[in-house]
Amino acid sequence: MSVKDTGHVNSAFNGAEVTLDIPTNTLYHTSRDCIVQQEEEPETSSGGWADCCRSTCANIFRKKTLQKRFPILVWLPQYKKDYIFGDIVAGISVALTVIPQALAYAGIAGLDLQYGLYACFLGCFIYIFIGSSKDVPIGPTAISALLSFQIAGGSWQMATLLTFLTGLIEILMGIFRLGFLIDFVSGPVGAGFTSAVSLIIFSSQMKDLLGIRTSGNTFLQVWISIINDIHNISWPDFVLGLICIVMLLSLRALASCSLGPKQGKSSCQKLLTGIFWTVGTARNALLVCGTAGLGYWLSISGNEELVRTVGFVPKGMPEFRVPPFHMDAVVNETSGLVLEEAQSFWDMVSTLGSGLIVVPMIALLETMAVVQAFADGKPTDATQELIASGICNVANSFVQGLRSNGGVARGAILNASGVRTQLSNLYTSVIVIIALLYLTPCFYFIPKAALAAIIIAAVVFMVQYRVIKPMWHSKKTDLIPGLGAFFACLVLPLQLGILVGIGINVVFILYQAARPKLRIETLSTPEGERYLMLTPDRCLIFPSMEFVRKVINKQGVKSTLPVVIDCSYIYGADFTAAKVISSMVTDFAQRQQPLFFYNLQSRVAQVFEGLNKDLVTIYDISTLHAKLAEKSNT
């Protein structure tokens, strides 16, 4: 593998000059860091498929490849006894967070609560072997749950199939190195999408917080139904929900409290700071336990109707079986009416629609946000995370689990708990399994308002209003795709809303490609010969060529001076560009006005000369001055 410097500037890097020589016969592999040139191996005429298979197998089972695809082979041999305590603490801390969150997120997805827990043990266990980051806890997230609800419509069969198919798509994206696709989701679009999601999730929890009925998938539909049924508000549920929200926000602030100076704390100060952090981190679990106790007390005292509880949650492990590839018709046994039509596999896939593409992209964005936030400057591997997330979700679909990926909040808990390796996921999995086997009867008494409070207290911090001010001062036009994605996600289904934001971004990119900047200077040679120097700032492709041609011809006609096109920044061109350049050369020749191409790269010259051999290319400033002097004397 080789990367060669030729003075080519990549403006995507702030102030850094990244230069690459890209020959025309190069095979490119996408990378999140740079374009890599892979040297072609000489072809051999003998061996055929057998040699190809042997070479592929040898490459797959190389030590470096195995370590890359199974990171456990790297960190497990280096595991120390000192790591055990940190991993156990981190695993338990995440388990105390993920169990109440999983129950709540299953509600967001419109599923029974056990489906949230089903997504929290098998994927976690598999991630130990193939996950590339110690700070990624696999489990359902608020965004994935909401996407599952809007795409699968609250059907566990559709949600399970969504988990399976999006997992397969992630694996294929990883194999074909398509992680670069998330680069098309810009920062403003991501901020608008996340902010809209937080408001939609907040709105979806109003039914449990207020004890009313709501309907609809989009933000507007939900609020219309809230207003229509607000007169049926349950005041005990509302008061309990508000108290829970205040408690959660207070305990969240308590987790960041630190007594005494940063350095040189006393033993008592360290103990109290540790207690504050533990209580604040386990706030969701403490709230669930406390409110479940309240629900139980209300039940035995005959006031169980005062607040609504989640009800029965099946006890035990889920059945391990193939995901549902069809749905049977649901018929009312009494009346014989068909409540739900039967659906074939292709009917179900058609219903999932664009969500099969959007969900993996959003999941990768979430996971990579965790990986990069705690990478400490180390390189990250989006390809491996795609493969790992895909395999975990395919496995989860066999236990009817909800769609899962890395979550930023739980990743922060892992990191703050002193996690050392991916083995922390093992302890999280074990605790979730214990909860499924023994604790589900206790879940019956958890008030729905308490779970709604957990979700609301989490999503209020997802509204990214802080990016508006720096975006305004930096580049105001970036607000357009961000606000476009925000409002589109509120009005349309999420998978369409984010596509609108990406589409607006692509329009901006295409406009910039169609309207390159041209620097126009009137310069003189040492002998006093004046000429016009035109410098395009990017490659020449078909959307921009008419614009470039008009500018160059206009300047040429207006000045009548020799024209020099500085091609230093033109690193690529296509057939349309060659056709326009050819006609432009002809136009200048008819006016008997000199036209020179300065510092034109060889591969671009090949494209241009394919249609016109009369190009005058110059690679040295002294040669340019000599040519100008020669033209002026004729």
Work out the helicity level. Answer: 55-70%
The largest beta-sheet arranges its strands as 7-8-9-10-11
What overall geometry do the principal axes of the alpha carbons give? elongated
Poorly predicted regions are: 1-46
* Main beta-sheet strand count, sense and barrel state: 5 strands, mixed
Please state the average pLDDT score.
Answer: 84
Strand-pairing-aware structural class: mainly alpha
- What's the end-to-end separation, in Å? 50 Å
Number of continuous helical runs: 27
Task: Determine Rg (CA atoms, Å).
Answer: 31 Å
Strand content: 5-15%
Q: How many beta-strand segments?
A: 11
What does this structure look like?
- With 634 residues, the protein is mostly helical.
- Helices cover 57% and strands 6% of the residues.
- It has helices spanning 48-60, 63-69, 72-75, 82-108, 114-118, 122-130, 142-152, 156-175, 187-204, 206-210, 219-229, 235-255, 267-281, 283-300, 345-352, 355-373, 382-397, 408-416, 424-443, 448-459, 468-474, 479-491, 494-514, 545-559, 575-590, 602-609, 621-633, and strands at 28-29, 36-37, 138-139, 330-331, 338-340, 405-406, 518-524, 530-536, 563-566, 595-598, 617-618.
- Strands 7-8-9-10-11 form a five-stranded mixed β-sheet. The protein has a two-stranded antiparallel sheet with strand order 1-2.
- A hairpin with a 6-residue loop joins β4 (330-331) and β5 (338-340).
- α4 runs antiparallel to α18 (408-416), α6 (122-130) packs antiparallel against α19 and α16 (355-373) crosses α17 (382-397).
- The longest helix is centred in the N-terminal third of the chain and has 27 residues, at 82-108.
- The radius of gyration is 31 Å and the shape is elongated.
